[in-house]
Amino acid sequence: MRKSKVLSFVLVAALAVTAIPINAFGTVSDEKNKLSDLQNQKQQAQDENNKLQKSKSDAQEYIQSVDKKLTNLATEMYKTNQKLSKTEGKISKTQKELDNAQVSINEQYEDMKLRIKYMYENGDTQMIDLIFNSKSITDFLNKAEYITELSQYDRDMLNKMKKTKEKIASAKSTLVTEKKNLQTIQAQQKSDQTKLTNLSASKQQELKNYEDLIAHNEATSDELEAEISAQEKRVASVEEQSKNQAAAEQARREAAAKKQQAASSNSSTGNTSSNTGSNTTDTSNSGNSGSSGTVSGGGFTWPLPGHTTISSGYGYRGSEFHKGIDIPASAGTTIVAAGSGTVEWANYSTTAGNWIGINHGNGVYSVYMHMSALLVSAGTKVSAGQSIGLVGNTGASQGNHLHFAVRKNGAYVNPWDYLK
Predict the structure, then answer these.
(1) Region Disordered: what ranges (predicted)?
(2) What is the mean pLDDT of the chain?
């Protein structure tokens, strides 16, 4: 009877040992697998973010290269336009010279015709007068030679004037050809400018798409980071619970071993007391009790003469603060200095594109952004109304316009306080 009770106790203890730890370690493994999956997802998001950042950087570099080409092209277009204007002026001047030469030829021709007519109508009388009125043969020959020279002079003058006219006409023809060549160059430059502008706009949109994807990816990474942090806490909690269960199980095993040893000891002493068996049975039941789980204003000249439309004003637009005013105009429109001063900088910026800053003294600067070409350089002294650049679409810009701003002691201020 006592042997049967001891065997029952051993079986119960064995079942307790095999049940709890298996479930506990299985839970830890599951939670760690979840954590590993989240970490893999985060790494994939980071890898994707690195690719997007590289693509964004490439797009920015490409936009900068296109902006540089646009800047050079705008400068060449400006020079071509100046050459075309000068050539047209020369053509106009040459045409006047040609008209004057024709007038002189006509006058000389009319005079010559009158003299020939007179000599023809009065030929015999004139010869008789020469004979009788000449004091000597020498005087006669001199007068006859004068008449011949006069006729020769008329012919020579007429030929000379014709040659002058031909020379002027040839010069005009050369200028007309030069004008046509310049117009062909100008048309090609405008075509190239349109293509580059469209390409820049396309890349700007591509850049915005990359920025949107990066923002979405970073938000996803933040969410994964939060999930990983929470999962790490769950893993730590389950590991702690498993550790506590293992400790409790170890204590149970030791207690069971002691009870088994005590039971064996009691069995070996014989039937000294009838109460021993009942005590043993009570002790074995206690082993199945379960487990625990544990500026001063108004002085500036308008920077874009003839263009007064404002596409975006100074102040908030949505959640962003616009630090100047945007004045739209076609590419190549001349931009002038708002006031006299010294050009502090004239260079390229990824955001501002081709831009200029003019120091007017007393901490006041006027700022001009997104130009297609710069007509002045740093250190240049400029006066109000002087040409400094051409309207463009360089930098972070969406369409041809001038972004005009004013800085006072290093901070952007309302430009309307300084414009006339």
Answers:
(1) 223-300
(2) 77
